[in-house]
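Lecture 7, part B: from sequences to assemblies.

Below are the input chains for today's worked example.
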Amino acid sequence: MDQPQTGAFVEMKGVTKHYAGVTALEGVDLTVAAGEAVCLAGENGSGKSTLIKILSGVEPASAGEIRIGGKTMSRFSPRMATAAGLMVIFQDFSLFPNLTVAENIAFAGELAGRRRFFSARSARAAARSVLDRVGVDIPLRARLETLPVAHKQIVAICRALACEARLIIMDEPTASLTEREVRALLGIIRLLKEQGVAVVFVSHKLAEVLEVSERVVVLRNGRKVVEGPAGTFDTASLAMHMTGREVRDAAPGPVPDSGDTLLRVEALDKPGSFRNVSFDLSAGEVLGITGLLGSGRTSLAKSLFGLVAPESGRIAVSGADVPLGDPVAASEARIGYVPEDRLTEGLFLTQSILRNVAVGRLGDHERGGFLQHRALAAEASGWLRRLKVKAPSVAAPVQSLSGGNQQRVVLARWMARAPRVLVLNGPSVGVDVGSKADIHDIIRDLGARGLGVIVISDDLPELLATCHRILVMKGGRMVEEIGAGSVTEDELAHRLAS
Amino acid sequence: MSGSRTEARLTEAPEFRLAVIAVLVFSLMAALSPDRFLSPQNLTSMAFQFPEFAILALAMTVTMMTGGIDLSVVGVANLSAVVAAIILTAFADPETTGGLAFIWLALALLASLTVGATAGLLNGILVSRFGLPPILATLGSGLVFTGLAVAMTGGSAVMGFPDIVFVIGNARILLVPVPLILFAILAAGLHVLLTRTGFGLRITMYGANPLAALCAAIDIDRILLRVYVIAGMFSSVAGMIIMSRANSAKADYGSSYLLLAVLIAVLGGVNPYGGYGRVVGVVLAVLSMQFLSSGLNMLQVSNFARELIWGGLLIFVMVVNTTNWAGFRTRRGPFKSS
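Predicted structure of the full complex, as structure tokens:
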């Protein structure tokens, strides 16, 4: 399966990039041979994205050399990159949701072929042959937006192949996939490698990185800190290279004895999403809910906060019923919700960091209809300090922060409201390794202070590091309850995917 | 938290450019036609002219802050004017004076504000409960309001008011035109509402990201309802001024004001996608437009050329403003900052 061919397909030498006085990359070398899979690992801000931008011709390098197939590229542009067979698949895939699978796959190739008319039949034939190449069957006439995420990603890969890709660069390919889908993806990658297509993964999800790559390159602060065969790294050493320090994840402390039932969910039912879900949550407990994509975990999380209206059932906080399907009522019952997609659901990107926190507390800082700006700002800054949000100024737009700091801003907004139950949907998605450990500390601390916390995640190490109890969902039903500490990660993964 | 700290430097704010533009236009017109443009008559006539459409622009501003728009403002203004006019002509007549006339005027104003609030509520329900796109919801409702006004009047003007009605649009208090006072009160009120109240901040946040507002447990429906009710009531105030100045009410007065109101709001730096807008900017845009239009009038430029110049000004300012927004846009692209 891995026969490293002689002669690198892509060779970058001493690539350096300055942005307005900031050095994003300094003297980075990277070579990729045909049929090779290389993993580019690094925290947010380490220079990974800059390196991709240079490799795909979007940004010119300030210094250094790029050679493709032995030829030195000057004035490298996106068009030249595409012509040489370099394709980037971004996290959002950049597909057309309203077009069919066949059209999405065939379009770029058709355009490159400078054909004047579009033929649906030849598009389907082209799409079919590419899908056969990766050994996947997706209905060609299905509209893209109706597909699950994993299939969208396969369509994106196929589109790249239809353009005769020789190197596919995948940005965070596993971020939105469940374990089983990751396996399927890895299978496809192996096929591609046999066909001589090289792959560069850009990721900070560590375990998967190791499994599929021949070689690992770790960037930190714009420099290459280490490079070597994938076999010589493990999760801990990789994390250490990425952060430059040891990252340890402690197990959660015991559930406090008082343990009164805080949240009671009874027979919550929404046909098509989840069926007959019941569970209790006591004060001070951190409860994990996991399941594959489509298991109903996200709908369940949203329904706890009223964003999705269940058809029947009951949610009660300390014995008092909470009206279903009403986020305002849920927040009045002191249930908080940190959404999965920070950028579209969690944050007001163009607004200041301070406002993003303060927005949750407006009602409590109004006197005679007027806002008490000073008290509001003082309180919000206090929470930002407590959660160690690193920002040059609280007046800066929240979009200027890194993923980890952004997530802390959302957490700060809810903590300022003193919730009793906090629902965290994917609390560390898209967050770098260092911040992730900090967020886990925050979650454990929330539990220790008597809140009921629900963590919805498919990141198994995260669940094991934070939760007292883990509920497994499958096909919309709660199928299993697992006491954390009684399982290892592998067992949990197996029970989830079986 | 407060505006001054968020907008890093005064000279970088779009409002600063607008102030420069307003001064430039004023100086240009004054230079081209000093004796007529700077004459007291012209200055006061300008002060009587702009408040009616400026108030409509304020109504537009508050809806645009949520990422919406209200295309029914002129329809609401005319409908509420027609209702007030019918009350004034049915229960009073041109000979009515003194206390009685005042009472009927007060009742007519109350009725017109109620019409504005109800119309706004209807728009708000269409936008929030039924989730219609604001541009279509208010386009439709605007036609309904105009149609109602036509049905009530048969399409002709309603006239013959007591003299006291004249005061709203034409009198002065301590040399200041009454319409200008009304505009100043509404502009200041809207400014305070947007910057000093929780409701105003919620409007901004909702405009910046409606989905995040939902997830932050903001009562979205209530915000939209209140925003459109405010827009409706502002429109009915504008309707009262138009009625007084024309000394009549008709279903199709001020039809050119709709586009003008949109134009001024956009000129004033209000982000049509929601989340940013300042009343100061809108006031400056109103002044620029009025200076330009009066000045061109003085110079006896034809109406057609005037539209050309207005359009040119709009595009010029939008281009200048867009370069300011560009920084935000590119960062939202497919590349994450890292």
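Note for the exam: Chain A touches chain B through 53 residues (CB under 8 Å). Keep this in mind when comparing with the next example.
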